[in-house]
Amino acid sequence: MRFLRLAILLTTIPFGFASSSNAQTTAILDGPGVPVRPGFKTYSLFLMCNPDWLLNDSDANVASLFSDFKVFGAAIGDDNLAVWFWKHPGVGVYSPATASAIDFPRSINFCKKWQLAPSKGPYLVITSQYPDERHLGDLLPQDSAVFALGAAKREDIDKLLVSLSDQLLLTNKVPIPPPAPAGAPTPAQPAAPPPARLPWSTRLLEAVQQSINQAGCEWTFKLQTGAVDATVHACVTQPT
Amino acid sequence: MNIRRWPVGKLIILWCWWGIPAYLLFTDFQMGKVHFSAGRYWLELLCSLFLLAALSAITWHWLGDRKTD
Fold it and tell me: Which of A58, A75, B6, B38 is the least crowded, having the fewest Cβ atoms under 10 Å away?
């Protein structure tokens, strides 16, 4: 009997780990010391910097955005992580998702470092670099996008999140911000340096990379035998 | 008359061991955004090219057994 229990336990453990690891694309960080987990291709941080959103009459907005966050986190796939900061565990599960449960100082720390005006928040910041809170730079990481949700209507936020989740799931890259819809200002973000300002060695390297990528996509290998006819394309180029 | 003979087994072993790192380096270089870390990608490109060149040289010089009639 003991061996039977052990066998059952051993057979269920791997499935338990598998299901828990696959469901970890939303990181609800419920405590000041809980770090963001590394190892993802992009990180989508929901930053609640706007003091207006801490008022009690914002509870419905917070609950709505948190609900959107959970759906968004599930839709972006295992390679991308969506992050939300609560003050304590169990918010949204054992206690309602309210404004008073938001870990405001933690979000403010990000907004201060990344020069995001709190009045236009909350923000959704998507970045490919690990957001290490102990070593945050004074500007946004280069490969990042900022979306100000403060003045946006719920329908606009839903549309935006659906669009972003599509791009994140399919490309695993930071999406390019779309033109701001009416009433939803998108703050200016530090853009990647223009190619002309890059050193010549970097431009040369980029040129080499592009040439190799283009050349790599141009060949096609055809195998025609009596039994098998196969065609191998080097790669499929995406329209830009 | 010189006849060059290629030992297939040795070739496969050599190119498998060193071709894989070269391939990985080259793939990472191709997929990366070079302006974020130009030094790293330069190093990857040069290392992968060096590995391929070294493999070719080793193959030609030491693995191409010459037999003289």
Answer: B6
- Identify which of A99, A98, A85 has the alpha carbon closest to the alpha carbon of residue A29: A85
pLDDT digits (tens, 9 = 90+) for A90-139: 676 666 677 777 787 888 888 888 888 888 878 888 888 888 777 777 67
Cβ distance A216 to B30 less than 8 Å, yes or no, reads: yes
Of B59, B53, B43, B44, residue with least CA distance to B4: B59
Contact A221, A231 (CB under 8 A): yes
> For the whole model, what pTM was predicted?
0.49
Q: In chain A, what residues touch B42 (CB-CB under 8 Å)?
A: 201, 205
pLDDT band for position B46 (50/70/90)? very high
Torsion of CA A119, A121, A127, A130, to 10 degrees: 80
pLDDT band with cut points at 50, 70 and 90 for residue A179: low
Note whether A199 contacts B38, CB cutoff 8 Å.
yes
Ramachandran quadrant class, B43 (left: phi over 0; alpha: psi -120 to 50; beta: rest): alpha
B1: tokens are 């008359």
User: Which residues of chain B have a CB within 8 Å of the CB of A202?
Assistant: 34-35, 38
Residue A105 burial (C-beta neighbours within 10 Å; 0-12, 13-18, 19+)? exposed
User: To 10 degrees, what angle do helices B38-58 and B8-31 make?
Assistant: 170
| Cα separation, B37 vs A137, whole angstroms | 16
**Pair of tokens at residue A154:** 């719920």
Burial A202-227 (b: 16+ CB within 10 A, else e): bbebbebbeeeeeeeeeeeeeeeeee
ipTM here:
0.73
- Cβ-defined contact of A192 to B45 (cutoff 8 Å): no
Residues 6+ apart with CB under 8 A from A163: A175, A178
